Task: structure prediction
Amino acid sequence: MRILSIESSCDETSASVIEKSEHNITALSNTTATSMTIHAGTGGIIPENAARMQVKYILPIIAASLIASRTKNTKTPTNISEIISEEKIRLANQILIDDIEAIAITYGPGLIGSLLVGVETAKTLAYTFNKPIIPVNHLLAHIYANYIGRKEKEIKFPFVGLIVSGGHTDLLLFTEHNKYTWLGGTRDDAAGEAFDKVGRLLNLSYPAGPEIEQRARLVSNPTVKFKSPLIGSNDFDFSFSGLKTEVSRFVSEQERIDTNLKNQICYATQKAIIDVLVKKALNAKDEYNAKMVLVGGGVSANETFRKILSSQSDIPVLFPDKEYSTDNAAMIGAYALLNYKTKNWNDITANPELYFA
Ligand code: KG4
Ligand code: ZN
Result:
């Protein structure tokens, strides 16, 4: 089965053509436009700016992804005019008619304007091209990113799912497809948000996770230490807002922050975040006798985190390919293919507050 999936819950606009064969989930295309350069200028996402860019990109990205699924050219067009020719739109429509059996769409959680762009586009395509539509929870899809490019049976239930993104930090237990329990999550800021807020304190690039990771790697002799919040608590909760306050206090007490000290702060921040993520993920797998741990979300791109969690776990830990760690449409498709539940198009509504049912 081959489907088209669409993701537009935050600042990315992404479309993918993805298929499930007897054993494998394969992304034939995954085409993403991001408005991050605009948000980098403002140091954070301004929802109206993100949604307006998505209005501009959504149809060209979908067309590009449909065409790429046949040509295997996965390069995202840098210029919309590369796509908007009558001939290309006609080809994309034909591929949608001929190759695509259903349309999957992120309906929450996320920014309302951004979600609306994707949801209403998907509903319109489903209606006009007469295709079933599958609404997908963006958070669950981050975990299912691990199925892309893998054999379905390689992943064994029960598994612990750890979502670590810019907006969410959650631990779940999956006992089969369509069946999961929420174990715990952050009480305030998300792990990625903590990276980004510390980045702002240190005037780093936005989003700050990758730069903090790079700078931390340069530290061979750590001299700064921050508390790892809730690391000793006997639950699956997280809290990262206190870390930002601790770093902020530390920064304000310094006369001068040179490059070395900046790197030290990055190291200590990253360590405080990683230590608690690793501890609670391992506690969860022990308590529930899980066979695997699956991690997803932007922070799962962090190599140091990957190495530490994998080396401390006595069961396999899976991370998505980097392309599928941050927001992308292929993961929405992977979730839809393995949890195939269609809905009538007019029963689907963008839900910014969607969490775990
Ligand atoms: O999943 P994602 O792309 O978007 C949301 O759904 O939120 O996650 C974005 C977050 C940002 O906070 C960013 O700083 C963080 O992922 N991130 C990283 C790394 N790459 C992205 N955090 C730590 N290390 C990284 N290498
Ligand atoms: Zn996400």
Notes: The pocket of KG4 (ligand 1) is lined by residues 10, 165-167, 192, 195-196, 207-210, 213, 297-299, 301-302, 326-327 (CB under 6 Å). The chain has a mean pLDDT of 94. The first helix runs from residue 36 to 42.
